[in-house]
Design brief:
12% strand; 8 helices; alpha/beta; five-stranded parallel sheet
Amino acid sequence: SMRGAVLDVGPRTATLGQNSAHIRAGSEPSNFVSMRGAVLSVSHVSRVSSLPTAHPHITGDAELDVSTKPLIGNFSLRGELMHVFVSYRVATEGAAGNGMSILVAEKIRALSMDNRLELQIPRDGWGIWPQGVKKPSHFLQAQAKVFLDKDCLQDGQSWLSGFVTGVVSSMVFVPLLSWTEDDRGSVGELSRLGVDGFDRVDNVLLEMILAMVLRDDPRAAVHAILPVIVGPAAKGGGFETFPFYKLARLSDAPSKATNTL
């Protein structure tokens, strides 16, 4: 369901500040994910699964020497990979909106090249640019590989094929979770689904669902979901607090159009 992420991995609890929402199985097929469940699952800093490397700047619960041991499944720090996937709603966080997606992507790239912060990606973690993902002309080899659709979708490539390649190849999924005053934004738009039976394929929801499934698969590249939570624009500049109370308006039912795409 959209309120209770119905995953075949069983029930779990997602925490939003001091509020807790139990994500439970419902009457829909067990691999359907609800709108509310998806948002609750990605709106807190998710656990970082074991990262298969012994490098001090890229480490997790388990450490493997990348020079001598194979990595989990098909994922390899020396294979095809993107370091970060930025998920957002084009109308509100894209170039035509507040441009936050572009700013976040640029900031991540800049931080990965800042010698003063010691956040550089070690050579063993550079990886190879994935096939099917367009390499931006301004890309530097040592900087973080950030998937932003406006930069990385190939000419003539379908959005679905491009974003799936991007999410599957990415180590960290960064969703921009927003709800504007007029109920728009990456999360606000989801409140329209399920009203009077209305349903459609929602691209942002689809990205969340895919990232959640991949994060829970030890063979996948996705090791963490790190959200950027954005409230309505403030009159004096900046942003107000995200209206968490509005999450109650998200439907408990799954978007069947999105889950069955």
